[in-house]
Amino acid sequence: AAQPEIYKGLAGVPVDYTAISKVDPASNSLLYRGYPVQDLAGAVTFEEVAYLLWHGELPDDEQLAEFEQFERAHRALDHVVKKVIDELPLTAHPMDVIRTAASVIAARDPEVADDSADAELRKAKRLFAAFPAVVAYDQRRRRGLELVEPRDDLGYSANFLFMTFDEAPELEVVDAFDVSMILYAEHSFNASTFTARVITSTLSDLGSAVVGAIGALKGPLHGGANEAVMHTFAEIGTAEAVGPWLDAALAEKRKIMGFGHRVYKHGDSRVPTMKLALDQLVAHYDRPDVLDLYDALANEFIARKGIYPNLDYPSGPAYNLIGFDTDQFTPIFVASRVVGWTAHIMEQRASNALIRPLSVYDGVERREVPAREPV
Ligand code: CMC
């Protein structure tokens, strides 16, 4: 019999409809609920984008005020979550920490047993509000520093930076960070979002789906790439070293982190916007040297392979300039992408079909269990 066709990695296979975002590689564009992401960045806040992704429309003043009030009321690190984090060894990666924290937050949610659509949305918003404290506190405890309580007179991004660095952040830094959060928030059926949808498709709960999604995001082929970009820069050292370094890396068939994309083959639509935010940070911190290596590697790799940077390429050095530890970059991605994940979880629930593909067996043919001598 003819072998059925295999769609390895589900590449190019549409598996469902979504009204949340449109990735269009042909026009190199990304729309959130119809709005081009580069138009949202800088025009509205990350909180407004989160509201848009969940509710389908940008909030009016009253809706925004209500959402901001809710978010600000749920920012503090829960004492049990703090205790659990304190028990985790520093050898555990920050992604292990935020994955564990997400599980504890979800299990301690006041509406944990209510899986109605309204309750699930509130759970999503509580996770969204709680993650910055997890990232900030984990970075601080690794530096031997105390927890910083949130400030409810600051917006999401400003407060995130305040809790991490214990000083009021400057406006340009907040703006650049907010842009990165907007760009990371949603990207259709990427691996972690699909993971969340698979878990949801069994009618499991939102917390389980978010925890699974964090696991999928951790890998260097997905979210882990923003961290890996910094390791690559450290390994290369200087712009002059790019050529020989690339010769060796390509000879070893290494993947160059922060380049390439499953969907975009001619450049990631989010990169120009994030590059502007990086430029803003470079100017703010007066670190033009950062761009030497950045440009050298990008130009050289594009020239040689025709493979373009993805969002993780500019966001890695941006987070480094702001002062985040390299291993916190992917947890920051979690704090943003939880919006997309939970929007998809709710969409999946609303028109659910169990996600259960087929496999084609290519193992040993049917055989007899060997007879054993009775003992
Ligand atoms: N470095 C070197 N070669 C690459 C790279 C890269 N970054 N990306 C693609 N290629 C080559 C690949 O080796 C293959 O070559 P060949 O046909 O000779 O075997 C060809 O390009 C096609 O690549 P592929 O791996 O089959 O494509 P894919 O769609 O499976 O992979 C990807 C997409 C993102 C996994 C891959 O580009 C990659 O590993 N990139 C590095 C990791 C990375 O930056 N990930 C972040 C992804 S985007 C944002 C996010 O999710 O965080």
Any overview of this molecule?
Pathway: Carbohydrate metabolism; tricarboxylic acid cycle. The active site is at residues 261, 312. One of its GO terms (molecular function) is citrate synthase activity. The protein has 375 residues and is mostly helical. It folds into 2 domains: 17-221 and 328-350, Citrate Synthase, domain 1, CATH 1.10.580.10; 225-321, Orthogonal Bundle (Cytochrome p450-Terp, domain 2). Helices cover 56% and strands 3% of the residues. The protein is built from 16 helices and 3 strands. Strand 2 and strand 3 form a beta hairpin. The radius of gyration is 22 Å and the shape is globular. The mean pLDDT is 96. The protein binds carboxymethyl coenzyme *A. Carboxymethyl coenzyme *A binds at residues 9, 190, 221-223, 225, 255-262, 307, 310-312. Carboxymethyl coenzyme *A binds next to loops.
